[in-house]
Specification:
Chains A, B, C, D: Keywords: NAD, Oxidoreductase. Chains A, B, C, D: Pfam families: GFO_IDH_MocA (PF01408), GFO_IDH_MocA_C3 (PF22725). Chains A, B, C, D: This is Dehydrogenase. Chains A, B, C, D: InterPro entries: Gfo/Idh/MocA-like_OxRdtase_N (IPR000683), Gfo/Idh/MocA_oxidrdct_glycsds (IPR050463), GFO_IDH_MocA-like_dom (IPR055170), NAD(P)-bd_dom_sf (IPR036291). Four copies of one chain form a homotetramer. Chain A is of the alpha/beta class. The first copy, chain A, has two domains: 133 residues, 3-Layer(aba) Sandwich (Rossmann fold); 196 residues, Dihydrodipicolinate Reductase, domain 2 (2-Layer Sandwich), CATH 3.30.360.10. In chain A, 32% of the residues lie in helices and 24% in strands. In chain A, the strands form three sheets. A nine-stranded mixed beta sheet of chain A has the order 17-16-15-14-8-13-12-9-18. A six-stranded parallel beta sheet of chain A has the order 4-3-2-5-6-7, sandwiched between helices. In chain A, strand 6, helix 5 and strand 7 form a beta-alpha-beta unit. Chain A starts with a strand and ends with a helix. Chains in contact: A-B, A-C, A-D, B-C, B-D, C-D. At the B-D interface, strand 17 of B face strand 17 of D. Strand 1 of chain A pairs antiparallel with strand 4 of chain D.
């Protein structure tokens, strides 16, 4: 028998053992199995607060080991990448420390819990890039949906033309029941915001990324329908059901947010995000209409993109349902024959693929922290508008930073 | 052979020969053929500005005659109902004259081009009701879509529960092409507003009617993407194509409008209306999520209502696609066996059915002018907000009128 | 006031007062209101067995009169067209008498209850055409669905290419409940066959008409799932519910039929028709795959045609959902703006349009009796195969008749 | 840092490096990461004919080693499971050898290229089970689609009631282009049959498994539309494009097959499978109608099951679109929150889960070889019928074997 040889390893410390931690773990295990990568990821260590759970997740995904001390892990000297899957209030501290240690960073979205933190992270990322070549990326995973990447390609190819309308809805219903249990995601201290930062941020990033256009101002409203929720003890995933008479915790974030937006190009945006849209488990929808075509997408059918070409023959025009599973489509050639769809976790695998390539100098790590801080500024404008009678509120311009300055040089 | 005998006639003067005029004409001809009505409508006269076209429409729909002088028609003495299908700038004058003549009035929506006109019409309607028993109704025809009437019934039955979300989009694309021709619908003087009053008004009415709830404030943005359009000469329907080098007329209305809304109950609304949504010919969508269920509708599939019942067994929950074509459904028992759908014009037939019954004392004529003026006040709030930096703008309360006062008596 | 003038009348005797009679009545009343017709139909008389019901239907649709004696009506001398909407066992006798009287005939499908009767009707039609110019047509109304007419056009334009697959399903569920009541449609004597002739015939005609190809042989199976049904008294429409303990009548026709078919071109067909497809009220589906494209249709969404163009760019291929409501589409220009759909009864209106034009010499009356007899021969082959162990059974060739001979002359 | 400990290993030899080999490899790597398994699979060796490709696949999936000699691998003594992903002509030989060596076997479908081979494999499996406790399973992977497993559960729960109709279509289009290249799947010697065995077998197995009912006879037709295909050299996946003027090889299998079927219960089946259904990349559809409900599924939307409950309130009935992604659904609790769908490869992961559990004595390995041989007998009946003028052809009864006998003991 012939034996197989290991490749050039890329050692990863994964911080966080919740839903996101597991999704990332599977991605690190899988990316190099389907994509030809310059370096082979190794899940070196899983880091969490609870020893028992952390050990279990490390075992589950075949990590070499586990730890409850992220600072110690950063100091080990055998880690290449720090992957941050913790609540938003810890992003800035961990990411900054990792960057200062010269490590590459993948940080879950939203980048931080406020703009100031986000901008500090941009500064740290710029400094680390200059000092050690460290690569940093924010985990807006929906960009890695083949259908949305195809939508972006269609825009870039001019198939949609000049964009007039963007409408994005991110509809979930796991809080529809007033007795759905309390979780850290409902605590402003830890989560920064509620639906806005958790899922609205995805819509904002997707809209700006697909269109290649920037939101320059918003008029917003936010609402909390259910003021308190029963406490379940340690809550890891979504869902679950509290006991009768359980104590209730105050919800300090938004249940739902809606805003209209103006893009730099003049396009009109309408956004809505909610966790109380009864009947919608995870319907992340976006539609774009331009003067030459249109696209429509719903994550509940993530392998499909609806595309309308206004240049089709009169009488034969209509939205095409493209099954985004073909060799021509983004990411999909690595997987199965046409018509054999992918699932949710593939987004994270694709994210790892792009990150590993960027670390090896092949392409940019997108979105970088500067771009992710841009989403944070939109989130901030949404909150300001919602607290200012929905008044149209410009998105603050980005401060001048080395990375941004570089972009504007000829 | 035995002969058939005529029934108690209800003589109608139809004013307007455009798209709406034809839809109404067919309704007057058809309602009593499928529904058991207390009086049988007769299309006595068609009134229009252009003699040739008016004569043609009168012939087309078998009217007894035609005229270019609506005032003369009102004075004839043999008319029971005046049906107003003209542009919005003429509604108040014609309706008021008809009501003063003791005639019943059906008036196309939006009721008027501004709130003051609308309120004057309410006063006229109240006075006529008191003086002569004249019935007045505003033509929000989408209420007569069986699927939307079913949605309203579901809300009333408590199937949706406490409503949290209303999202309504009315998407058309007949102005998507920058060279789509100019029409009176693009002239603020005649149309009052553009997309807002033409199709946004339908969404507002549908949302309030289905939920039984009132919009109490809005935050809005309006936009005109294409500033001038080529002139075609007399333009009757939608669509068409101007000659190269045709003169261009300035568009004085909105191409698109979007607004968030607050309902009296605390529900959150998100509305969008546009005529530049490439790919959408006439997609009038509304979705409602409550704590017990949800509904979703798109007029492109007008015979379907999607309904989600949160009380379905866990593991067997999902939106049901109801074909609203059954004996149990609103209006449909009069037509064909289950599964044999209706078309657009049936809305107008159902509207006539309800009006004729109301005239005979069987049920109310809904929406009456007071209720339609309420939609006008929402439209006005939308415009004010759009001109005030999108600021949250309360919908003005209705003035006290006899009809409204009566509603609040015990 | 100016009065309108009547046009050149075409006087119609409608025989049958059931579901089909009402659909035809509305068509006769409506066709000339939306289409420019050379003659204006007048519903002169409605004929039925039951005086009360017949009078009611005549009044309902504004016919001049009614009768229970179809022979007397044929002899009146003031009738131009006889429209036969009775059960299949009476078609041959009435149609032959009408043709011999020199009248035009529209006969509901299936043309007859067996091939011999159908062929006799072809002979009568040919003779009448020669003698008096009488026009005859069989009412395969689904041909007049704009989406199916568009499908046929696409085939004719070569958009589908060489056809390989035809799959057609006609799924209803009104007999799904074993206690759904007995009707004449379940009596072999009156209906000829059950699901096969009632709805399977529609699929056969649609498949042959859209493809322009002929079924040359079949392998079939037929089944009756529910052997007896409760009796309700006179049953007019579909549906209803018998009393507990009602007497039960034996069902002498098929509940369901399925067959594979070979077309002259070599295409493969798969057909299924049933009235026990729980959940499907009236799902008349057809899909066709060729080497250049494909179409898919379901009557539950009658205003849509799905179309796949294999020549679309790689990576942008998919079924287009065409809303068949545009000026470019068959029949639809006469109605409403794009995106405003039609309903079931419009099929019959379009049928009248085509018939009236054919009577005036503008186009052929299709399908004529010869073509409809061709469907009857396929039905017969299906029944023979089902009784011969599903063995492949060629469709009998048509006998030589004057009309068919003429078609083969150079 | 704490280290993680390996679990009780289950060592796997994977034979085959094509599309199926890669899907299985990923499953072996993943199953224990998401499911709590009694033993942890280890991909010990990948076996293939081509050394270079085999080594590449072994490296790609992190196997310990690779080999071109499957017999040598079976003799190594450190293998627990042999996973056979080769063309059908080699199944019997490899599986029998593995079973004789006391190894567990997972064999891709169809079990063999003819009934005799399949029955020999059943005998071998029975003997091995008795001698060494070896477990054998055939890879009808679609059973592991959560939506189809839910469909089966619904049938078992009585939600569908007495089944009347099964209609299954497996539609692909990768051979729609007459110049799509030749592959071993078009060679009767290697593949046994064409579309029938490759994808029709999936429909047959799914239909019998979901209904719990057996096909007892069929009436079939088979067709080859494209007689020769250009040769590309070694062809691994599907698709690709031959050079102009390439030599052409004769296709010796069916392009398409259609048959009607009778189930033991009296239900009627209609099956179609084709690789020339232009527009359908991989549309594996099945619909079932019973007297209490119905289900409908299409693999292009693999995370959805449409379910109709005839007991829903009148007026609120319709097919529910269940997103089969919830904790209550088969397999899905191990993955992501509700609404986050799975992909094609998850079927194989679930298959591994069930197999590993069966090996550890937890549940049966289904379908075992006896059940898979039953599918083979249906395939044989289809071929016989197709060569006997489509005549109804009973499915041969299974021979008495130890495993089957045991099933019938009290």
């Amino acid at each position: 028998m012939s034996t197989t040889t290991p490749r050039n390893a890329l050692r990863v410390a994964l911080i966080g053992t919740g839903f996101m931690g597991r999704a990332h773990a599977q991605a690190w295990r899988t990316a190099h199995r389907f994509f030809d990568l310059p370096r082979e990821p190794q899940l070196a260590v899983v880091v969490g607060r609870d020893p028992e759970r952390t050990a279990a997740v490390a075992t589950e995904f075949g990590a070499e080991g586990w730890s409850t001390d992220w600072r110690a892990v950063l100091a080990r000297g055998d880690i290449d990448v720090v992957d941050i899957c913790t609540p938003g209030d810890t992003h800035a501290e961990i990411a900054t420390a990792a960057l200062e240690a010269g490590l590459h960073v993948l940080c879950e979205k939203p980048l931080a819990n406020d703009v100031a933190e986000a901008e500090a992270m941009v500064v740290a990322a710029d400094a680390a890039a200059a000092a050690s070549g460290a690569v940093s990326m924010c985990g807006f995973s929906y960009r890695r949906t083949p259908a949305l990447a195809l939508a972006r390609r269609f825009v870039q190819e001019g198939r949609i033309g000049e964009i007039r309308h963007v409408r994005a809805q991110y509809l979930q219903d796991w809080l529809s029941d007033p007795d759905a249990p309390y979780t850290w995601r409902l605590d402003r201290e830890r989560a920064g915001s509620g639906t806005l930062g958790d899922i609205g941020a995805h819509s904002i990033d997707a809209a700006q990324w697909i269109t290649g256009d920037a939101i320059i101002g918003v008029s917003a409203t936010m609402q909390t329908f259910v003021e308190t929720r029963p406490v379940l003890g340690e809550q890891v995933g979504l869902g679950g059901r509290a006991a009768e008479g359980a104590a209730r915790e105050r919800v300090t974030v938004d249940d739902a947010v809606a805003f209209t937006a103006r893009f730099a190009s003049g396009a009109m945006g309408v956004f809505e995000a909610t966790r109380l849209a009864t009947g919608h488990r995870n319907s992340n929808r976006i539609e774009i209409n331009g003067d030459r075509g249109a696209i429509a997408f719903d994550f509940t059918r993530m392998n499909e993109l609806d595309y309308y070409d206004a240049a089709d023959d009169a009488g034969a025009q209509g939205f095409r349902r493209i099954q985004v599973t073909e060799a021509e489509h983004p990411y999909t050639a690595a997987w199965w024959p046409a018509g054999h769809g992918l699932g949710y976790e593939h987004l994270f695998t694709h994210q790892v693929v792009d990150l590993v390539r960027a670390i090896a100098g092949d392409g940019a790590a997108e979105p970088g922290f500067a771009e992710a801080a841009g989403v944070q500024r939109v989130l901030a404008a949404v909150e300001r508008s919602a607290h200012d009678d929905c008044r149209f509120t410009p998105v603050e311009p980005a401060p001048t930073t080395p990375s941004r300055e570089k972009e504007h040089l000829p």
